Amino acid sequence: MEKIEAIISYAQENLAEESTGHDFAHAQRTAHLAKKIIEEDGLDVERFIVIASAYLHDVIDDKVAKSPVKAQKDLQYFLQEVGCSVQEIGAIFDIIQNLSFLSEMFLSAKPLSIEGKIVQDADRLDALGAGGILRAAYFSGVYGQTIYDKNQPPQNFHTKEEYRQPTTMINHFYEKLFLLPEMMNTEYGKKEGARQKAFMQEFLEEFYKEWQI
């Protein structure tokens, strides 16, 4: 089995029970979007690093893994076993440990390589648009968050602890999702992110018309 096929199988197995919208289907879409960014922007990059990182980026995340430390050790051992070089493993971990919104905003994330920036944009694009709306609703439902509360305005967070406090599904648009287009690294990411944000803003206009409580 080729390395990338083994990595895809590993991601599928480790994300099989994921129920917050960070499942294997999300990993697949992230990989697809990463390829789209490479093609649309004509980027010359290490495609293996990009695709591997896209599939693996949530495997060690604390929203998904019961023990992130163990998940990191398991992943490193797996990558060694399938024949990844020390350099490839390092490049993949540099990406998946530093691409998250939380890491960039609150944890002094390590600067990403061009491959990392592509995966970061792909991950963020999947959080926007029609799919992003559904994923936000799905995530909020799993964590028991209310849809909307006019007496609970969106917050500006300054720490990881503040960011992880319960919010509403609609507040999540303002507290995170609408910030993503301006944080994109690639030309395709910026263009597509702006288009998806506009669609989400139209959705909210309709939502506020209907939500008469």
Automatic annotation (TrEMBL):
Entry superkingdom: Bacteria
Ranges for domain HD/PDEase: 19-137
InterPro entries, per the entry: HD/PDEase_dom, HD_domain
Alphabetized Gene3D superfamilies for the sequence: 1.20.58.1910, HD-domain/PDEase-like
Protein name from the UniProt record: Metal-dependent phosphohydrolase
